[in-house]
Amino acid sequence: MNILFLCTGNSCRSLLSEAIFNHLAPEGWRALSAGSQPTGQLNPRAVALLQRKGISTEGYYSKSWDALPVTPDAVLTVCGSAAGETCPAYLGPVLRAHWGVDDPSHLVGSDEEIEAAFEQTYRIIRARIEAFLAAPTLSQAALDRIGTLGAAC
């Protein structure tokens, strides 16, 4: 099972999703992340957060969806619609769902406020991935329901 987490820049939320999923997933399940317009670099706060949580970031990089090594079985977009972002649409015969999360890297505020936003994003993504991995079946309805856990978008 290959899951693609997709966002425009592939530097923060999709990276967090890929790393958390791969940290929690059973043998034979793999997440990838990509962007329609990758930034070419990972968000340093996202990398530091993963490392603090004991989640490896080795081998991760910001990449285009044009360079995927496998065809995904499901595509989960994580762009935050509340932030006014335009989520890319993956065109392929796969299950798709929108798991929108606001981008903590766009927050303007104190270091404490920004770190709190990254922690909240991590909690939302992790809760959704845990629900995904616990789901008895992967239906469109289940994916859509999971995408509403943790926050309204």
TrEMBL record:
The keyword Protein transport appears for this protein: no
Domain of life of the native organism: Bacteria
Pfam family, one: LMWPc
Coiled-coil intervals: none
Keywords linked to the UniProt accession: Arsenical resistance
CDD domains to which the protein is assigned, alphabetical: LMWP_ArsC
Phosphotyrosine protein phosphatase I domain mapped to chain residues: 1-135
Protein name, per record: Arsenate reductase ArsC
Provenance organism: Duganella margarita
